[in-house]
Specification:
The complex is a heterodimer of chains A (about 110) and B (about 120). Chain A has about 110 residues and is an all-beta fold. Chain A contains no helices and 11 strands. Classes of the chains: A mainly beta (about 110), B mainly beta (about 120).
Chain lengths: ~110, ~120
């Protein structure tokens, strides 16, 4: 059974800092890995999707990397802003269209 | 609509009652998913539809939970004889089709269910 772990559970940083969120998964036979953002009381917004054959994806100040063989992914946020404060979730799927298995998330607070 | 729409946004009910939660996916999306999220946890998979049929319902916790998608668009999650442990946010997501953008999912804002 796939298990996804995210470290740290919570993180508080001053504005402007670069930061890394970590995600690990137990079964390396994945189809893709997605990073989501969730604001309090809201649904999930997809940030980045990495196919199993890819090593990284970038969108603006966000960069996600994938090391499939070691079961790890990182989300790098450059020059953090208070508006980045949210919970960040990673999730993996086993095949195309199949269920996502989520981690419990990292709650990020960026202080002005 | 522009995004995945879920109604109601909030539902408070009493133990033992029947509840229906509705999901209206993005127009043209063939895949639809239901997840359940408890406070402080990541979402847990419930059921996945490809078109009108349930492609994977192995996440439904027991036979009190049932979901339909009769015309391949709107889906309804039905919970019978609700229990306090059913209290959670129920999230719906849709995806255009298999292999589109590697399976990117678009989530609604969820229906918060509270069972008293």
């Amino acid at each position: 059974k796939q298990e996804v772990t995210q470290i740290p559970a919570a993180l508080s940083v001053p504005e402007g800092e670069n930061l890394v969120l970590n995600c690990s998964f137990t079964d390396s036979a994945i189809y893709n890995l997605q990073w989501f953002r969730q604001d309090p009381g809201k649904g999930l917004t997809s940030l980045l999707l990495i196919q199993s054959s890819q090593r990284e994806q970038t969108s603006g100040r966000l960069n996600a990397s994938l090391d499939k063989s070691s079961g790890r992914s990182t989300l790098y946020i450059a020059a953090s802003q208070p508006g980045d404060s949210a919970t960040y979730l990673c999730a993996v799927s086993k095949t195309s269209g199949s269920r996502l298995t989520f981690g419990e998330g990292t709650q990020l607070t960026v202080n002005p | 609509g522009a995004g995945v729409s879920q109604t109601p946004s909030n539902k408070v009910t009493e133990k033992g009652k029947y509840v229906e939660l509705r999901c209206d996916p993005i127009s043209g999306h063939t895949a639809l998913y239901w997840y359940r999220q408890s406070l402080g946890q990541g979402p847990e998979f419930l059921i996945y539809f490809q078109g009108t049929g349930a492609a994977d319902d192995s996440g439904l916790p027991n036979d009190r939970f049932f979901a339909v998608r009769p015309e391949g668009s709107v889906s309804t999650l039905k919970i019978q004889r609700t229990e306090r442990g059913d209290s959670a946010v129920y999230l719906c997501a849709s995806s255009p089709k298999r292999n589109h953008k590697g399976g990117e999912l678009f989530f609604g804002e969820g229906s918060r269910l509270t069972v008293l």
